[in-house]
Amino acid sequence: MPTLIKDGKVADNTWQLIAKDFELEATLNTNGEQLLVPLTMWQEHKIALQESGKQIGVWLDSDDDPYELANDAADLPLVAVNFPVFRDGRSFSSAAILRERLSYKNELRAIGDVLRDQLFYMKKCGINSFELPESINAEQALHAFEDFADNYQSTVENPAPLFRRR
Amino acid sequence: MYSYDAYDKQMLEDRIIQFRDQTARFLAGDLSEEQFLPLRLQNGLYIQRLAPMLRVAIPYGCLSSRQLRKLASIARDYDKGYAHFSTRQNIQYNWPVLEHVPDLLAELAEVEMHAIQTSGNCIRNTTTDQFAGVAVGEIEDSRPWCEIIRQWSTFHPEFAYLPRKFKIAVCGTPNDQAATQVHDIGLYIKKNADGEVGFQVLVGGGLGRTPVIGVEICDFLPWQHLLSYLDAIMRVYNRFGRRDNKYKARIKILVKAIGADAFREKVEAEWEHDKDGPATLTQEEVDRCKAFFTDPAYEDLEDTDPAIEEAAKKDLLFSHWLERNVAPHRKAGYRIVSLCLKETGVAPGDVTDSQMEFVADLAEKFSFAEIRVTHEQNLVLTDVQLKDLYTVYQACKSEALATPYLGLINDIVCCPGGDFCSLANAKSIPIAESIQRRFENFDKQQNIGDITLNISGCMNACGHHHVGNIGILGVDKKGSEFYQVTLGGSADREAAIGKVLGPSFAQEDMPDVVEKIIDVFLDQRQEGENFLATYQRIGIEPYKESVYANAD
Asked: Where are the beta strands (DSSP E) in B108-233?
């Protein structure tokens, strides 16, 4: 079972991740009460999902356009951005777009091939929860958020770049 | 020079602790080879043919004498007593031991240096013209702007896992010695009618497998918007740059695929949101950075010196050196001196620990303790008094640093090639040497005049062969090393990509091939023409005919 870090603490993962090839019916028949569905399923079956009585979150793959959630961002309890392989850095931008452009306020989660050594950067881009692979010890990984005391840029986490603060 | 404050120092200390931990986890087996790869690359560490190679950043080519001394002692203590200046104003160590790299980085940090983002798919060391701040006719000193970009690009959280490497050059000089147009982003500093500073922004330049000259997407970007505009370009690239094929992953491929206009629209759509936002540069920050690059304590001097003129009359080699390696300075009585690291028999760009210490001494005595590194793999003392030139020359001579052929055919730009690099298809250093030996006669070199000859050992083009007037590329043909020749490349303001001459040549033929090319030029040139001008007038055919005349 992958572990979760949320808002700087190790937490239980109560959401069930629905893979891209899942059918709607199978999805709605799962026991989970909180389902994290792929963007295409959300777009195709939004009403059925909303009326299912379950809580629905949406996950974006690295090549999905985060602007597709422009009209939903205010209502979704969870959006996740996938890192199919840790070298694929597109989801850093997707996360920033969700926060900055779509004003998404709720939980933003990194899923997939998440490296301990990327957690610091992910948090700067507005990601506040992290589904970690089993190989990573979540307690130890918490230290990753202290890798750097500060950063130079304007970020989602702190829009004021260092030059406005130093 | 820029000097670190508590924030910059902390950032560097944090990085060393982080990398020490990453190295330990890798050695303990907690990080896989694949996971460690981008982490070590973003610290400049390659695993090469014989040993790891560590590339240390020299931000926009500026070094203090103290830093150069540290680079020398590192070469002695962690390496085999020498190091290599690369074609991107960086320095490379060829023989460090992985386990010792964190200690090496800690030593570098003592002098505010590092290997951050000198490799990997991230924003690399920002480069500029080595004459920034002292060039005659300079529009604006690029160094403060480079420092602003250095800070913005260092540990940028959104852009550490780009599709591919990303290089930015800034140029504020009329001549452009920064190869600005063949960078992923090239920034030419401009002033508008009101004297306000801004940037002409070029994107999509680059060498490698597909050489391209950058295209303009903004003709005047007011300075306040520099970082927000760069953020917008990077975001478009990070999102839409290809990731399925590493040979098609550079920004140039994206720009070509969608076209400059469509690319500009995407950038502007992105930029619209951030323009005038918190990333907007403040006058205060620009002033803070500019304060590090004020004039040193120049004296008011005459711009002539009879004693130097006299020495030049008596010492022919010195007069050659004056003509080739000494450039005018914007301040009367001062000159810019280039030390050419191209002694025949030494790999281009290589220096020993004692040579580095010697140059540090020289800089302290004669040039306000600062040194510049050039992308042509030479060193520069920017502020030498005219009266000291002969003393400096004689001292350099004793250290084999006074070769008087800057910008001549033997001032070859050359990557480490197959002797060191695991990416190379062919050796490059022995080719450089064989050509240098062929043109060893200085009169011959001088007669040929201004020319650039660049050699790369593979398509990655670290030797910038595409933009050499003569370019040489090592290729692998059925397991043997062959060399392809291009003509007409140029890295200056009129940048051009060289054209392939024809089928490639065996290693031993290369000096003959180059000589034939030169002979065509000498035969055909008209009054006042340099190699490139003649080539541009007569085209490639005459060279082709001569070189392949007797081919079987």
From this structure: 127-128, 168-171, 185-191, 197-203, 215-222
Find out if CATH 3.90.480.20 is the number for domain B306-398: yes
Q: Which residues of A touch B155 (CB under 8 A)?
A: 121, 148, 151-153
Distance of residue A53 Cα from the nearest chain B Cα, in angstroms: 35
The whole-angstrom distance between A55's CA and the closest CA on chain B is: 29
CATH topology of domain B413-547: Sulfite Reductase Hemoprotein; domain 1 (3.30.413)
Cα–Cα distance, B74 to B71 (Å, whole number): 5
Rounded to the nearest angstrom, the minimum Cα separation between B215 and chain A is: 24
Mutation test of the interface with chain A: which of B161, B225, B233, choosing the one with the most A Cβ atoms within 10 A? Answer: B161
State whether B157 and A151 contact (CB < 8 Å). Answer: yes
* Structural domain range at position A30: 3-164
* Domain tally, chain A: 1
Task: Return d(Cα B91, Cα A114) in angstroms, integer.
Answer: 33
The domain ranges of chain B are: 6-110, 135-290, 306-398, 413-547
A64: domain CATH number is 3.20.20
Q: Record the tokens describing residue B537, joined without a space.
A: 């007038």
> Residues of B with CB below 8 A from A125's CB?
157-158
A161 vs B contacts (CB less than 8 Å): 152, 227, 278-279
Cα separation values, B22 from A119, B16, B37, B161, B550, Å? 14, 10, 11, 17, 58
The tokens describing B536, both together, are: 């541009």
CA distance A107 to B244: 30
Chain A hits for B18, Cβ within 8 Å: 117, 147-148
Q: Do A148 and B159 touch (CB under 8 A)?
A: no
Which has the closest alpha carbon to B182: B461, B421, B540? B461
For B135-290, CATH gives 3.30.413.10
Q: What gap in Å lies between CA B185 and CA B458, rounded to an integer?
A: 23
| Closest CB to B238 among A90, A120, A124 | A90
CATH number at B6-110: 3.90.480.20
A chain contacts of residue B3, beta-carbon cutoff 8 Å: none
Taking any CB pair shorter than 8 Å as contact, residues of chain B touching chain A are 5, 7, 10-11, 14-15, 18, 22, 35, 38-39, 121, 151-152, 154-162, 227, 231, 235, 238-239, 243, 273, 277-279, 281-282, 284-285, 288
pLDDT tens string, chain B, 552 residues long: the values are: 999 999 999 999 999 999 999 999 999 998 998 889 999 999 999 876 667 899 999 999 999 999 999 999 999 999 999 999 999 999 999 889 888 999 999 999 999 999 999 999 999 999 999 999 999 999 999 999 999 999 999 999 999 999 999 999 999 999 999 999 999 999 999 999 999 999 999 999 999 999 999 999 999 999 999 999 999 999 999 999 999 999 999 999 999 999 999 999 999 999 999 999 999 999 999 999 999 999 999 999 999 999 999 999 999 999 999 999 999 999 999 999 999 999 999 999 999 999 999 999 999 999 999 999 999 999 999 999 999 999 999 999 999 999 999 999 999 999 999 988 888 999 999 999 999 999 999 999 999 999 999 999 999 999 999 999 999 999 999 889 999 999 999 999 999 999 999 999 999 999 999 999 999 999 999 999 999 999 999 999 999 999 999 755
Name the β-bridge partners of B472.
B455, B485
Give the residue on A whose Cα is nearest the Cα of B230. Answer: A153
